[in-house]
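anyone else get weird line breaks when pasting these?? whatever heres mine. first is seq + tokens for prot A
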Amino acid sequence: MNSNVKADEIAGAPICAGMTEAGVQALSLHLEARKHQPGDILYREGSQENTDLLIILEGQIEASSEHTHGVSEMLKIRLGTGDVAGIMGFVGGK
């Protein structure tokens, strides 16, 4: 289920540090909330289709790398509430 994001939900995120209240409000108008289930794959490494900026409102995500044959994974980073993912694809997106 997707829904709108309220400015107060993202105001404490590091990406909003230094932004005015009006700036945070403007950003929130371009965001939508999405719920994901454990194990959902949000991005694939190297994919050119990843242009969404993620601001984690609740919970955590893990970034991992598959080995050459896809058999095992190596954890790269764990992100939680207030953290941002996907900024490179968002900035460099189509």
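and prot B, same format (seq, then tokens)
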Amino acid sequence: MKKVVGTNRSLLFIMLVLTLSIGLAACGGGGSSSISGGTGVATIQGSVPGTVFVAVNNETNLEMGRATATGTPKIFSMDVPTEKNYRFYVMENEGTGNARVYPVYIGMNNVFAMDNSANGQLISLGMVSPDLATGRAIPANSPMLMMGQGVNAMVPSSLAGSAFSMDDVRETMWGYNTMMTSGTMGWEHGTLSFDNNGLGHMTGIVRNGNPLPARDDIPYTMSLSGMILNPGDNTFQCVVSGDMSVMVATFTDNTGGPAMMIAQKRGGLYQTDGSDMTGEWRFQRLTAGSDNTTSGWAYGTMQFVFGSASITSMTTNTGLGGGGNFAFSMDGNGIMTKAGDPSFHGVMSMDKTMIVATDTDGTNPEIWVMMKTPGITFSPSDMMGDWVMHAVSSGNSGSRGWTYGHSVVDASGNDTFSQMMGSAGPVSSAQMTFMMSGGVMTMSGTGGGMGGGMGGGMMGGGIATSTYHGIMNGAKNIMVSNYSDGSGGYPFSIQVK
């Protein structure tokens, strides 16, 4: 056999190194390969649902790089000096008032050392996805050249304006409405407040007409990305809107039923003559019952003149619905009541463009979300961006549950749902295509249930596409919708920026 010497030995060594590097990149835990040149520099690549990937020097807390991801999937690439410690962040809806920042974690670490062994290396993170159960971003790969160095909760000044913390909700008060679609089916309303230590307190609780004791010292936590979690309840997942006006949560309540809570920040003054209610309101409504005939959904419009209201149009899961006239009152705190119906409890938003209410129709609990959008122009591009979705479903027992997940809408109205978790476990990703006209969202389709095509829904089941109907608020950071799943279920969804 020929002896390997001189130049041949060098060539063989280079080929061996390249082979090993490529092999490591192919392994799930590898995520690195060599690149030409780049002494003292490593290249980090991956893909993100959003559009920006940020590298921060852990010692100086200054940005070392910011890469905009492009294409389908959205791919980023950046060069960073080696022999430094880094933190990384994924940013969504950047450049808007609805930006969110997810710190990148691998295992229990968000600080990573890259020594000179990373020189000239291509480090592949794979898809870096938001994990809504923790509020972090988790890469698909765990590159060996990024060595975990623990946790640093500091936020660079360049991202501080987009970061959330418990300080944002300390000493604030929120009016909440909750809908439970199974277990002890019904509704609940009350006040959620946060003290100066960030502990939550729920007071003035009324559940299905019965007052309940206060719930004190709830140890909520807030992630950098605006996810509110309850360490004492691993089913609870909540997101706060970028403008800090609304919280939406899903969870399993203490009777084992799926529940959705919508909380609106309190403050400001409201006109007790009812003039704040005057105008046309669009509404989405969910009704819970023991089966698919006593449960259902509705959407339509309601015209208010002070406290006098009339339903001017309504469509339900069974077809066109009837009208109706109602008399409402409002107090100075924006709380609505309805004449002749002690079950009705509504909360108006501080900007006076959204009402969330719960009531009982016969024996069936309902939740309403109403939007007033006078003089606002909408376009399909208003749907674009990254959203956090929560849904709860009523109907047949097998269709009841809750789901939350990440949602990205592109310029064509394609909404991709990922990182989905449901009350029964993980939910498969799905894609839906929306159309928008005047702030109303619909889907097209032929055949299938209810005259529409069947597709993958937000809760892992189907969707009769012609039944889908959604509305957007005036701030364009909330979308509310409902539809029929084709199996006797009626999902009710809220997406929040």
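btw re prot B: The longest helix spans residues 6-26. The two ends are 68 Å apart (CA to CA).
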